[in-house]
Design the sequence.
């Protein structure tokens, strides 16, 4: 009986300790930027839309939890997650070793390459470092694309911007010569009236060290249970056709990648 009572007491203690850390994931707060179309953006009346947003809603439905969205400037995204402003980041955040030092990630939910766009009358011939020597190249700061430009295109004159909207305005007005971002983001912009100034120069070969394994959902390191819930939900929407339904709403090709 003593052994049983001791065992029961041990279980009770563990339950209390575990309970202090365990969270009730009936509601999950999702951080996103709202400034990165077609993945996440805000309509004129403040509604969040885009691929990231629809994927987040589908994952929450698959997990049977309530979703609450929180908009956050990109540069402060990881600090805000760590501070508890929200529980997960679904904002096209690439899974990189540098970011893994601060937060954990789910499996990828899409993977597309970087690319460069230029004005339609540009004389820039290609996307190599030699081609871009002395070129004023715009990129969003604190992204894998700005990191790629710094590492792989050192001969370019890199100009950093807080959001893609600013670099788009500058390349359209001739203040910079080219921009680097995800091929989907650039292609989506080029298909609009605002992007009529420019053309896609070409895609770039991703560097796994810089560009990572694809876009994943960032989670606080202590929230491993939430990470597993998301991973199971990603598998679920890939299997039941919901992922393809969302993919086909925005793209004419498979963004999940190999």
Sequence:
């Amino acid at each position: 009986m003593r052994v049983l009572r001791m065992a029961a007491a041990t279980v009770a203690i563990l339950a209390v300790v575990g309970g202090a850390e365990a969270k009730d994931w009936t509601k999950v707060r999702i951080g996103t930027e709202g400034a990165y179309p077609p993945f996440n953006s805000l309509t004129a009346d403040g509604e969040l839309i885009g691929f990231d947003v629809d994927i987040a809603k589908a994952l929450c439905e698959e997990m049977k939890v309530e979703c609450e969205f929180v908009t956050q400037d990109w540069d402060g995204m990881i600090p805000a997650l760590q501070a508890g402003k929200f529980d997960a980041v679904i904002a096209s955040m690439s899974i990189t070793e540098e970011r893994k030092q601060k937060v954990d990630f789910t499996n990828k939910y899409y993977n597309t390459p970087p690319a460069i766009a230029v004005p339609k009358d540009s004389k820039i011939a290609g996307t190599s470092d030699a081609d871009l020597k002395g070129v004023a190249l715009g990129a969003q700061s604190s992204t894998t694309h700005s990191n790629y430009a710094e590492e792989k295109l050192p001969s370019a004159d890199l100009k950093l911007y807080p959001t893609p909207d600013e670099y788009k305005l500058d390349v359209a007005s001739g203040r910079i010569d080219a921009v680097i971002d995800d091929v989907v983001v650039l292609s989506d912009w080029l298909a609009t009236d605002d992007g009529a100034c420019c053309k896609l120069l070409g895609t770039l070969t991703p560097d796994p060290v810089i560009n990572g394994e694809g876009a994943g959902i960032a989670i606080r390191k202590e929230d491993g249970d939430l990470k597993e819930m998301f991973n199971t939900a990603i598998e679920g929407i890939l299997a039941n056709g919901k992922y393809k339904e969302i993919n086909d709403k925005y793209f004419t090709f498979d963004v999940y990648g190999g």
Confidence is low (pLDDT under 50) at residues 1-20. The domain at 24-111+213-250 is CATH 3.40.190.10 (D-Maltodextrin-Binding Protein; domain 2).
